[in-house]
Amino acid sequence: MSGGSEGAEPEPAARDARAGTAAEQAVAAGAPAGRAPDGGAPQAGPGAGPGAGQAVAGDVVTGDVVAADVVAGGELPRADRQSVRRAWLWGITGALLASAAWGAGFSFYDEHDGGPPDLHGYALGESPCAGTTLAKLTGAMGVTDSEPVSPSAVHLGEALDQIRCTLFASAPLPRGGTARYEVSVSIDLHKQTDPKAEFEDQQELDPADLDPVEATTTVPGLGDEAFLLTVSDQTRRLEVLHGGAVFVLTLTGYNKLPVSDDTVSALHTGDAAPDVGRFQPAMVEAMRTVMKAQERAGR
After folding, report:
1. Is residue 128 helix, strand or coil?
2. pLDDT category, 49, cuts 50, 70, 90?
3. Which long-range contacts (CB under 8 A, 24 or more apart) does 229-233 make?
4. Tens of pLDDT along 92-151?
5. How many CB atoms lie within 10 A of CB 19?
6. What is the 3-state secondary structure (H, E, C) of 207-243?
7. For 82-96, 227-241, 275-289, which range has the lowest pLDDT when averaged over its residues?
């Protein structure tokens, strides 16, 4: 070109060379890449063009993002924005999973380590010794006369509801005399603590004197756990655990014989005590009726 073009704009190659020289001088002076040594406006590096100021490979130094990593308007490059979004998503997902695990753990603790036991809808209603509640047992015993002890003893507390009742009954003996029976029922509804451990701990003891019982038999299909205790020849005790509810049905019998030579003979042969063991199936059925009656009372 002629000398008259001295005022014309430098060729692109010359501009690139000058820009490159300015960037090299800035780095040599200790200024971040893309910024003038005097702290002025960011300068375009070699190859500057419409994408000047965007991050390029090698701009990350000792884990920090240098000035060239920030585009106009203060935004991170697209790749970095995606990384941040992924980090947020993982963080939120982790927090949700931790919250769910904590809730499940709290629920497990509440149920198994201090939470109130399930009463399965039981509530104390009428006396279990009244009406026909024990009819399946008294019918099996051939009872002709019965009299419940009234009123039943009842306690309603914040932690425990209790009821106790007793039924006296009698039945004629085939060879004269009378068989007399005492049927007692107790119900404990534990509203705050689980009675399971105490219930299982007492299955070989007579609660009257804490002596070992003669035998303990498991009764299937009744509550959560059920045991029939042979306390003696004259006494059987049926105990049932269902959640926080404990039901106990006790049957004791003895014979009242007429005073005669037969009476003395009966005392020696054991006929003075009725065979209450044969009433065990009837005790189980009577217990089912007792439990259903208290369940209906809770509705």
Report:
1. coil
2. very low
3. 229/203, 229/204, 230/277, 231/206, 233/270, 233/273, 233/275, 233/276, 233/277
4. 766 666 666 555 554 444 445 558 999 999 999 889 999 899 999 999 999 999 988 877
5. 17
6. CCCCCECCEEEECCCCCCEEEEEEEECCEEEEEEEEC
7. 82-96
DSSP β-bridge partners for residue 241: 225, 246
Give the C-alpha separation, 228 to 125, whole Å: 25
User: HSE of 119 in the Cβ direction (CA atoms, 13 Å)?
Assistant: 21
Distance of CA 189 to the CA centre of its chain: 19
Q: How much is the pLDDT for 192?
A: 95
Rounded to whole angstroms, how far apart are CA atoms 38 and 28?
Answer: 13
What is the token pair recorded at 238? 């049926």
Condensed to tens digits (0 to 9), the pLDDT of residues 242-256 reads: 999 999 999 999 888
- Is the pLDDT at 194 greater than 60? The verdict is yes
| Residue 203 token pair | 């299955």
Alpha helices in the chain (DSSP H): 12-28, 78-112, 135-140, 196-201, 261-269, 280-297
